[in-house]
Design goal:
1023 residues, Immunoglobulin-like
Length: 1023
């Protein structure tokens, strides 16, 4: 249902889309140039034509008065170009290469001839783009098929300059050149595929359907929006005028892997051997060809990928220490099963109109969901990824109005069903601090349905000799409607926290004060009770002009985005459960007695509606942003030969709106209520108040009219400046040097609006935050030694309001990135190819760029304590990064390829998990607080260096068939080691006399080991 105020906007958008449609060649390239005579004078009226396997038929162009010609919207591949004019020799240029997002420039000089004569040439396609200021890296399907890496977009994107993995394989998330894990925009055949809830890829795009990938790293034109980092532009295969296809199998297993950590060492460390693939199978088949020659093509692909991966973490040992043994608490590994399907139809309706339709499907099942496992998660607490189904379909119409004006209209529909199930139902969740282990139920069952509908239209017009320059005008518009539907539930809503379960100590917060923790999830006990929804609607438009005069090109653009998130009418029933908390006094026979008492306490102290009461909400706007994004680029062809380009650009990018970023105010969203449990009678059981008391730590607003986000909230943005030079050193080899600078501001973070985070703030009664200066005993854990330091912790005054959170733009929040990158790219020729980068840079700030912090709830601005030693290198800061990929074709059609990576170590810093306030300290709300003992980046993990190789041999078969066998060897260099908990993260017990020091229970422990050399065998049949 479209609200009344938006109907005029939507009408304007549709009028724009129909009357002013456009051409967006984001998934294509172009060939352009000039036809001149021997004296360098332009030849108007010359006929230029191109043909090739990726083109339906032959396309022709008649040169303008300036001699210019251009062919836009060309699929990547090799073309043949013919230039002819009466009275001149005809020239045929073979193997003209077109890549995605780039223009191949040719200067053709025709020689006069009294009779018809044809000259055939093989020209070197330029490697330097002298008209666009953008920085990009292109990978062809042939290149991807030759490099030893996992057959997944995740590994591919981590090979580009500045990409650093988050290390969470199931999410496939990375930071690229100072972006966050949510910053990348993924597109398949020109349409965005980002998840409306999480903003990373909604679809695991099958690597076997890639024709080419363009990684646009910076200086984006105005037509590229919804990203503040990298645009990942995937072009799918399309079939052709001849039937072609094949099949691929890629396999490994236990017998093809070698542990590099001796078994005696793993036994001594009390961990399992390094994680490896116990089995891995990846089978794919494809076929493409003509439905009608030069009129209709099809392409089909199917793929099945299944594997089992062992893990070296051993939560079962921690459970044994608590007395839990047997199959229910056994070791677990990860298994994955995924199916892919892809279909594409391309139709040349007539000489001016082309249609493309695409369908992509994948299904995923994991009996142990990778996101739910870990060193401190026992098997019963893991979850099941219960057959995700994702459907994507895109449809596109291209229309050539004349040889200089092009039209493109597109539409896309994506639907993702994403069910996560708790392995253990009807149980509470337990946690023991001493063993650092969870058991019982997982957080909750979670069913997601995500939908995304998009439409776009744009127009491109080429105009020569306008105001003495050549212009490429482009204007377009986009519409998006996205929805997130969620149903979360658990039958037993309670968490049970223990200081020492084995010793029977339930006082998680303070044994001396007999203070424990009570946590209750506020959700229905069964599925299907509610449908929690957040919707996003976006209208976008852009104009841009690429101006070229002589050796100078200007790229000018402006983008407009109007985005908003809203919640439709929804409801919550009254919440009651069949079980009470596990520590409830057995004398309390009513399962809901304590919950009802706490609800009554909520009504008395906070408000008339608690998170467990029935509530109906009306339609509600969450956030609205109107942004203007300028883009300015400059390119100068230094010597006028198309081989040396100086480039500079300035861009402003705004972070897109996605549900998880702005759903903190979703009253019905996943959450829990935490209480300090004060065991006043000391019986180690939870009694009803007033026998025991329960103090809420913070609370979510239950007023449907309450806006979690400030009315003047601004959209986060990134300012980017790039400068560099690109040089063709020799044929097919390009060297680039780029300087990148970025700053992220107006970052959205939750802030305690009642108390703030200023340590010097006061009210009428005095300081809001009571400072406690203390001596940190340092790394050695002993007071009075040389590594001691003074630190200050802050307690929230006892009579202040309980913290209440609101989404704001803290002015201190920022991320800064700079890098100097040397890039090199050698196309496959003379039997070798090479790609890579050497980067040195810095990524600092006080708001992390990883998954959880980018949702705007990192807790960094929750109090003065979280800001102590908060600014420094971020997780993705790797000052030195080296990536080199190459191939050499040896005699007898033996192909050798290699891939080397090197990164500086991960930054980290020592922390203090708990600073307990002394007995005589003024009354504050917390028993203890946490803070950083040193800035992030004060320490670094060991550097990462890895070297992989591939050896491949091909065998020609009858006709056009070929059989290739290859072996990938991963970790040739033998990288191995141990993951140790190096952070003492102590509890400083100033509530004791003398003060106590308690290091983390896992400090110094070997948590896991790594180091496997593995072989994978592949066979590829093609025809």
């Amino acid at each position: 249902m479209i609200s009344r105020p938006l109907r005029p906007l939507l009408t304007l958008f549709l009028v724009f889309a129909l009357l002013s449609p456009a051409y967006a060649q984001r998934q294509t390239g172009a060939i352009s140039g000039r036809i001149l005579d021997k004296e360098g004078k332009p030849l108007p009226g010359a006929t230029v034509s191109i043909s090739g396997p990726a083109l339906m038929g032959i396309s022709s162009y008649v040169t303008s008065d300036t001699g210019h010609f251009r062919f836009a919207a060309l699929k990547p591949g090799e073309y043949e170009l013919r230039a002819e004019m009466p009275g001149f020799k005809s020239y045929v240029f073979q193997s003209v290469l077109v890549t995605v997002g780039r223009t191949t420039e040719l200067m053709v000089r025709l020689e006069e001839a009294p009779t018809e004569e044809e000259v055939t040439l093989t020209t070197a396609s330029p490697v330097v783009d002298v008209e666009s200021s953008k920085v990009s890296v292109n990978y062809s399907a042939r290149f991807l098929a030759s490099i030893p890496m996992n057959r997944d977009l995740y590994d591919i994107q981590n090979s580009i300059p500045g990409a650093v993995t988050e290390g969470v394989d199931y999410r496939r998330t990375s930071s690229i050149l100072g972006g966050t894990v949510r910053s990348q925009l993924y597109a398949l055949d020109g349409l965005p595929l980002n998840d409306p809830a999480t903003s990373f890829s909604l679809v695991n795009i099958n690597v076997d359907v890639y024709e080419e990938i363009e990684f646009e790293l910076g200086a984006h034109p105005a037509e590229v929006g919804q990203t503040d980092s990298t645009y990942i532009n995937i072009v799918s295969k399309s079939g052709g005028n001849t039937f072609a296809g094949g099949a691929t199998a890629y396999l490994t297993g236990n017998g093809l892997s070698t542990d590099l950590i001796p078994k005696s060492d793993t036994a001594a460390y009390q961990v399992d051997p390094p994680g490896q693939f116990a089995n891995y199978s990846d089978i794919s088949a494809n076929i493409g060809g003509p439905v009608l020659t030069d009129r209709a093509w099809f392409y089909l692909n199917g793929r099945w990928n299944t594997w089992k991966q062992t893990t070296s973490v051993n939560p079962e040992v921690r459970m044994e220490n608590l007395g839990f043994r047997g199959v229910d608490y056994a070791h677990y590994d990860y298994e994955h099963d995924e199916l892919f399907g892809f279909a594409k139809l391309t139709v040349q309706v007539d000489k001016t109109i082309r249609y493309m339709g695409m369908f992509h499907y994948n299904n995923i099942y994991e009996p142990v969901y990778q996101n739910s496992g870990g060193a401190n998660i026992s098997y019963p607490t893991t979850e099941i990824w219960n057959h995700e189904n994702t459907f994507t379909t895109t449809h596109q119409v291209n229309w050539s109005l004349d040889q200089n004006t092009f039209v493109d209209i597109r539409g896309t529909l994506i639907q993702r069903n994403f069910p996560i199930r708790s392995r253990t139902q009807d149980q509470p969740t337990y946690y023991d601090y001493r063993q650092d282990i969870f058991w019982g139920s997982s957080a909750y069952n979670d069913d997601h349905l995500r939908k995304k509908i998009m439409a776009s239209a744009s127009v491109t017009r080429f105009q020569d000799d306008l105001l003495t320059a050549s212009h490429e005008f482009k204007a377009g518009g986009e519409f998006e409607q996205s929805e997130e539907h969620q149903d979360w539930y658990r039958s037993n809503p309670y968490y049970s926290y223990w200081e020492d379960y084995a010793a029977g100590n339930p006082y998680y917060y303070s044994t001396a004060l007999k203070q424990g923790r009570l946590r209750i999830y506020n959700c229905p006990p069964i599925a299907g009770v509610w449908d929690i929804q957040d919707h996003i609607r976006r209208f976008s438009g852009y104009v841009q002009d690429n101006v070229t005069k002589g050796r100078l090109s200007l790229n000018l653009g402006l983008r407009l985005d109007y985005s908003y998130q809203y919640q439709p009418r929804q409801a919550r029933p009254e919440l009651r459960y069949s079980s009470g908390p596990p520590q409830i006094n057995p004398a309390v026979t009513d399962a809901n007695a304590l919950l009802v008492a706490l609800i009554g306490q909520w009504h008395d102290e906070i408000g008339p509606v608690s998170p467990f009461d029935k509530l109906i909400t009306s339609i509600k706007d969450v956030v609205k942003f109107f942004t203007l994004s300028p883009r300015v680029g400059l390119v100068y062809d230094l010597f006028g030969q198309g081989k040396t380009a100086l480039k500079m650009s300035f861009s402003r990018y705004y972070e897109p709106v996605w549900v998880a970023k702005y759903n903190a105010g979703q009253i019905f969203g996943p959450g829990s209520i935490d209480y300090y449990w004060n065991d006043l009678d000391g019986n180690k059981l939870m009694d009803l108040p007033p026998t025991d008391s329960y103090v809420i730590q913070s609370y979510p607003k239950q007023d449907p009219a309450y806006s979690y986000y400030a009315d003047d909230l601004k959209a986060p943005y990134v300012t980017e400046f790039l400068a560099g030079v690109e040089q063709e050193l020799f044929r097919d080899f390009k060297l680039g040097l780029q300087f990148i600078w970025k700053q992220s501001k107006d970052i959205v973070e939750d802030v305690d609006v009642n108390n703030g985070y200023d340590p010097d703030a006061e009210d009428e009664k005095g300081p809001i935050w009571i400072p406690f200066e203390f001596d940190d005993p340092g790394w050695d854990g002993n007071w009075g030694t040389s590594d001691d330091q003074k630190l200050t912790a802050y307690g929230l005054r006892a009579d202040r309001p309980v913290p209440t959170w609101m989404g704001l733009n803290p002015p201190e929040a920022e991320r800064k990135y700079w890098a100097l990158a040397l890039t090199f790219d050698k196309r496959m020729s003379n039997n070798w190819q090479l790609k890579g980068s050497i980067l040195y840079g810095s990524f600092k700030g006080n708001v992390e760029a990883t998954y959880n912090p980018t949702e705007g709830e990192s807790a960094i601005f929750n109090s003065p304590n979280t800001l102590v030693n908060a600014y420094g290198p971020l997780f993705f800061d790797r000052p030195l990064q080296i990536k080199v990929m190459g191939t050499y074709i040896l005699p007898w059609d033996i192909v050798f390829s290699a891939y080397m990576q090197h990164y500086s170590g991960i930054p980290w810093g020592r922390t203090i998990s708990r600073v307990y306030f002394p007995a005589g300290f003024p009354a504050v709300q917390q028993t203890y607080v946490s803070l950083n003992a040193e800035s992030p980046g004060s320490q670094r993990r060991v550097p990462y260096t890895n070297f992989d190789v591939r050896i491949e041999k091909g065998f020609p078969l009858r006709g056009r068939s070929k059989l290739d066998f290859y072996v990938d060897i991963f970790n040739v260099g033998g990288r191995s080691g141990v993951v140790v908990d190096n952070d003492p993260s102590p509890r400083l017990r100033f509530d004791q006399i003398p003060p106590g020091y308690e290091a983390s229970s896992t400090y110094g422990d070997v948590l896991s080991v790594y180091g496997v050399r593995s072989f994978r065998i592949g066979v590829r049949w093609s025809f």
